[in-house]
Amino acid sequence: MPELRQDPVVGRWVIVASERTRCPTDFADHHNHVPEPRINPFSEGNEGLTPPEIFAVRAPGSKPNERGWKVRVIPNKFPVLRIEGNLDKEGDGMYDRMNGIGAHEVVIETPQHDQQLEEQPLEGVASVVEAYRVRIADLLKDTRFRYVLVFKNFGRDAGAALSHPHSQIIATPVTPKVMKEKLAGAQHYYEQKERNIFADILKQELRDSRRIVYQNAGFVCFCPYASRFPFELCIMPRRQLADFYRIESNEVLQLADILKIVLLKLHRGLNQPQYNYLIHTAPSRYAKKGYWTTLEQDFRWHIEITPRLTQIAGFEVGTGFYVNPVLPEDAALFLKDVEV
Amino acid sequence: MPELRQDPVVGRWVIVASERTRCPTDFADHHNHVPEPRINPFSEGNEGLTPPEIFAVRAPGSKPNERGWKVRVIPNKFPVLRIEGNLDKEGDGMYDRMNGIGAHEVVIETPQHDQQLEEQPLEGVASVVEAYRVRIADLLKDTRFRYVLVFKNFGRDAGAALSHPHSQIIATPVTPKVMKEKLAGAQHYYEQKERNIFADILKQELRDSRRIVYQNAGFVCFCPYASRFPFELCIMPRRQLADFYRIESNEVLQLADILKIVLLKLHRGLNQPQYNYLIHTAPSRYAKKGYWTTLEQDFRWHIEITPRLTQIAGFEVGTGFYVNPVLPEDAALFLKDVEV
Q1: Number of folded domains in chain B?
Q2: What is the ipTM, given to two decimal places?
Q3: Partner of A134 at 20 to 30 A CA spacing, among A1, B180, B223, B256?
Q4: In A, which residues are within 8 Å of B18 by CB distance?
């Protein structure tokens, strides 16, 4: 059983998932990359090799766990958190731990092994966005969960273990540290100014315009003012909404458009770099109704895209102090001009 | 001129050091590793190829910037922060920025290219520790600086650009985010319990003993309860002291001993993995005398060592939510048994 442990000084929760691992000495062989499986369990026709699907976008008349799907969501065969059980919390001397209860799902973005997300037609990308939306909405109904993380690791250095295009969803019994900090920062700003900080950021970016990469009717993509990484991107909705899963169908299409275009710009402009993206959405309000009442007005969901063009040095992880060798204004200018 | 920019939501400062960089399109060539220079500027006899030394441990009678040194501290030729100038702070609409004033130094740990820190004799490691101590003490006298970071990146994935054994020192005009969180967590604990949290952690680790890797008269090395990374290590002094630079000469030797031994255990047990270490020491009290009065009793300096055996996935950086595949108790048991 995986477990969650809390750092007593900074309050950060860590998943210790030792069931997934090899024995300690296996780590000595750190030059031995994990090989691709001989049979790709994510390709069409191999549905029987994966756990039964949780959700799929399918051709009319096709049956679950058979051919005919466009997007398929399945439980992760090697989950970092387990869906079954109760959230037993206990002290361990001065430390805190709890059972590793949660959900860990894989979103298979396409049946085609060699078609990256940005290379799909718009409707394909929209189906992936819709799968995210449906799964977040569903997982937040489970009152054991505080947060649902949706993210994509593209490339081995970015954390991907399989090359077939996929993203991941993890539902957690705690709100991750960075989310808490974003929520607290947004709340503090609202208390001081009675304005939404994300609305103010968007307004300043649009007025300044030097960091804008692309925009459409629903969304704006820009390089954040204090980007940690070269060519870091933020996709911000124009409409105030704390919860990603409450986007409407026209916004699903608009988001698919902007996601496809900016990922294509990265792909073509920077020679298909490894990257991660992450949806920052509001946590569950089930457990802390009073605490989160202001979320609707002070927080806005958004997406962070971080290309992995430089090494993440240990001191950056250890201190939270990043060195970015590219001016966000230069990165935006470069990406704006990449034709797609 | 590099600049510091602050994220308006979470308050994190980022160094944007675009002078160091190539043009944006160079990032497209992300498979082209930086080659080693043909002439190694860090080896003995090449002192003239580096900026003049700031500090050195030298054989009696040898002259600065000539042969005869054991450890040599020089300014970084490609600094992320500049030593000259004033700390101009300004708003940029709703954003905050300041001049990239600071110091960036390189500690050349040995004249020998192929001798890693842990392979040096004890006195050699002690000279490196003493160089850290002297430089931190000196840099904290500059009232523009709030913090002095001492860290080592070993291996390219860990952020090292040159293979000659070296570590780095960066003095910053702001206290890095993770340090602030550690200080705040420690202060909160002390307010609640009137006890030092690091003393309590050390006491529990010694009583429990399952996570202890090595100890000597002055220091204890253990795998933290909520380790983020496999085989993560913490070196904690037994004596309460907030500032690393105030260690005494016997502690310099004891620290050299424990550092040498645990790095040798990593080297031999895990096939010389890439790693980072980082000294967490108290910030300057110059600017905020009132705020930091309790530091002496509630904070304790310590060292974090993080081997890079797994990829740091983007979602971990983006959320602060780490997945560690090795139980800290298993990691400690394994390292304790590695003979050195």
Answers
A1: 2
A2: 0.90
A3: A1
A4: 325-327, 330
Give pLDDT tens digits for B207-222: 999 999 999 999 999 9
Name the minimum distance, in Å, from the CA of A1 to any CA of chain B. 12
Nearest residue in chain A measured CA to CA from B228: A14
Residue A313 with chain B: CB contacts under 8 Å: 153, 158-159, 276
- Same-domain pairing of B185 and B143: no
For residues A44 and A65, what is the distance between their CA atoms, to the nearest angstrom?
10
d(CA B236, CA B232): 13
**Which residues of A form the catalytic set?**
166
Instruction: Determine the Cα–Cα distance for residues A181 and A306; give it in Å rounded to an integer.
Output: 19
Are residues B201 and B55 part of one domain? no
To the query of whether residue B166 is one of the catalytic residues in this protein, the response is yes
| Nearest residue on chain B to A190, alpha-carbon basis | B9
Dihedral, A30, A32, A34, A39 alpha carbons, nearest 10: -170
Which of B153, B172, B191 is at the close of a domain?
Answer: B172
Determine contact, residues B23/A333, Cβ cutoff 8 Å.
no
Same domain, A18 and A162: yes
Domain of B28 in residue numbering reads as: 3-172
Asked if A159 and A22 sit in the same domain, the reply is yes
Q: Do B269 and A30 touch (CB under 8 A)?
A: no
- pLDDT tens digits, one per residue of A210-248: 999 999 999 999 999 999 999 999 999 999 999 999 999
Tokens 């919860």 -> residue = A243
